[in-house]
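Intended use. Records like the one below are meant for learning the mapping from a protein sequence to its folded structure. Do not use them to infer anything beyond what is encoded.
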Amino acid sequence: MVGTRIRPSLLYMVKQVELVVRARLDELVKPAGITALQYTALTVLERHDGLSAAQLARDSFVTAQSMADLVRSLEGRGLVRRERNPRNRRELLILLTDAGRELLAGFADPVRELEERMVAELTAHQEEQFRQALSKAWQALSQP
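Structure written out for the chain above:
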């Protein structure tokens, strides 16, 4: 049919949002010399400090190899530190440093403003529904 427009798939739309969020976040944190992926890892540690590299990689949506490079970079900047797990001496835990916490605190307002911009056209109720829908979509795809 000529002139019939096919709606983009939800997967395509989710990817569009992901890419624009990542681009805006990269722009935001670039002056601090970090990337959106590094920022994400720092925020994960802010919520759950003392994770293994494997768990941090899973929670930050990157591969274990990427996380190894990322942690080395953040450690070199003094934003994270590694220490032995007292329950498993073979495992290193990654912890946020005071400098890492200060960096995150400095971006709290700009990141909040970015998120507010993303949902500015939604009512409070629609925003809550959006959060719930995203959570349910994630849960549905996270199950084996």
